[in-house]
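job 3f2a | input accepted
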Amino acid sequence: MNGTLIDQSRYQIIKTLDCRDVDMRKRLRPAAFMEITQEAAYLASQEMGFGYSDLIATHKAWVLARMTILFEDMPLWRESVTLTTWHKGLAGPFHLRDFRLCDSEGRERVKATSSWVILDTEERSLVRNSELEGLVPEHRTCRQHVIEAPAERVIMPRGAQPTLAAEHTVAFSDTDFIGHTNNVRYVIWAMDCLSYEELMQRPVRSLSINFNHETRAGERVALHLYREADCCYVEGKVEERQAFCAKITF
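job 3f2a | predicted structure (250 res):
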């Protein structure tokens, strides 16, 4: 996947959706959108001088903490889509990044906002923004909003009694080059807690997910499901520690 800067702060990639990106309805899968945005964020930050190569020299790395995605009209197999992304600045402890996916005619099909933190890869602890002053130059920041509110905090509703839907042991194919479970895998686990028939009949309209603690190879993640009328929640826990919580709306 290749991309290009379209100005000082915005980065763009053009991609034709292939068979790995779509479901049986030939529509873009939520996890595939996550994969595209993850790579775009990596390429954009790398191009602008605050990417993986710039941080890893001091044992630091970007980590996705929260994401909210609105699927307005799922693109189809073999469609050419354009994804544009930019860093929006800070909001509390988070670095914000937006994504807009449009079709070949410029119509907005999917939009997302995300919140990122920086991890010390040796200590496995978060790095304070006060230690990173000047990391993202002002001219590399775009204040435009695709979604104005930052990605939401996702928690199980008060009084919810989720049921155990599945268990998953983190395997080699789940992990990334930082040594923990790749963010996309949590979305796949959450979606797989729902039945094939339900997902075929009820298209996903939005997805919000929080990544609260990393999981690593060999850990066993219990996946708990709670349903409401038009949405469901999936929580992944390692013993009593919450790894992630997702809200899927239909």
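job 3f2a | The first strand starts at residue 3 and ends at 5.
job 3f2a | closed
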